[in-house]
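Hi team,

As requested, here is the filled-out complex form for the S-adenosylmethionine run. I kept the field names the same as last time so the parser does not choke. Let me know if anything looks off before we queue the next batch.

— J.
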Amino acid sequence: MDLHTFAAAEGSPEPPLLARLRLATWQRTRHGRLMTDPHTGRVLSLVSHMVRPHTAIELGTFSGYGTLCLLEGLAPGGTLHTVERNDELFGLHDAHWSEHPRGGDIQRHHGQAMDVLAGWPASTPIDLAYVDADKESVVVQFEALLPLMAPRGWMLFDNTWWNGTLETAQGPKPDGLRALNDRLKNDSALQVVVLPVGDGLTIARKR
Ligand SMILES: C[S@@+](CC[C@H](N)C(=O)[O-])C[C@H]1O[C@@H](n2cnc3c(N)ncnc32)[C@H](O)[C@@H]1O
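And here is what came back:
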């Protein structure tokens, strides 16, 4: 058994609502592989419990799996914002989020991640962000997000390993992720650790 298989098997199990959403995502969409995997989801939940965000945001909702994971640690009275441009997914969200006792604390934004960040009120600093939308513009999203983060806010970036292909892969997605990885590790205002979780989950703390 390799370390990833062991790690995925030995932690707390996936909650039943998330298992149902995962199954429904595979049944009702053609792109189930876009969904956050169960082990990464448990890490999102744990980080959210550690941070206890009052304001959290997810860029790229897909079927709403990561949304429910992040919701688990949201502070009482807090709001979890999530941004998705494809409204064909909203039926899946509604059917599953409504089953969660705190589903009403999710605020869904229909549109482009950059538009939501551009209109974000400065009076609402973000305590926790999960960046999981298009990889082509992930650095632009990061630059827009950084000034909106609370002092000592936490950012998570998915797919930063890109299946181990970043040394040679060509194209706008690997270009975007390489630029993100370089940008993050060279910023002394951040503390950055790449967690070998899922497809690479980078965690960055604003000092
Ligand atoms: C990798 S999936 C997100 C997975 C999700 N976070 C989860 O936990 O399962 C990426 C999603 O981001 C959406 N998306 C991509 N680029 C976007 C953008 N610029 N603005 C808003 N949504 C975007 C896609 O439609 C897709 O549903």
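Two things worth flagging: The pocket of S-adenosylmethionine is lined by residues 34-36, 58, 60-63, 65-66, 83-86, 112-113, 132-134 (CB under 6 Å). Residues 38-51 form the longest helix (14 residues).

Thanks,
J.
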